[in-house]
Design a protein that fits this description.
By secondary structure, this protein is mostly helical. The chain has helices at residues 4-30, 34-63, 81-108, 112-137. Helix 2 runs antiparallel to helix 4 (112-137).
Length: 139
């Protein structure tokens, strides 16, 4: 059984994943201009990946007999392409830090399943961060 502290972190992770899945999808929809054609599809793909992460984390929380949150963290779409990418970078950096804490806590508790899940998700988040940083460099 997971500790209350770990379950709280997992719930925070679900809220974050719901947030960015909506945020990135709205950015995909609202992105305008010639540069938008180069990244719109990637934003949509990342939004869908984030929703899958939310599902995986929620399933883990349910495994522990708890009910995952349905409330996203604050969604910040941004008004300009630069604002969007700066926000997305902050969100991915936060996710990486959060997921590293979750991995550490899960390992301390002997919860290899949660640690394994978040190691896989962490790799995706690092790729997302790299993508957003690359886009920001070109703006």
């Amino acid at each position: 059984m997971a500790s209350k502290e770990l379950l709280k972190l997992l719930d925070e992770a679900v809220a974050r994943e719901i947030q960015v899945s909506i945020q990135y999808m709205w950015q995909h929809i609202l992105w305008k201009g010639i540069k938008g054609f180069a990244v719109k599809d990637e934003l949509k793909k990342i939004a869908i990946e984030e929703m899958k992460h939310a599902e995986d984390i929620a399933e883990r929380i349910a495994y522990f007999g708890e009910v995952p949150t349905t409330k996203p963290s604050e969604i910040v779409v941004g008004d300009t392409l630069k604002e969007m990418m700066e926000q997305d970078i902050k969100d991915e950096e936060y996710a990486i830090e959060l997921y590293q804490r979750i991995i550490q806590k899960a390992q301390e508790e002997g919860d290899h399943g949660t640690a394994h899940l978040f190691k896989k998700i962490l790799m995706d988040e690092e790729e997302h961060l790299d993508f957003f940083r690359g886009i920001l460099e070109d703006l």
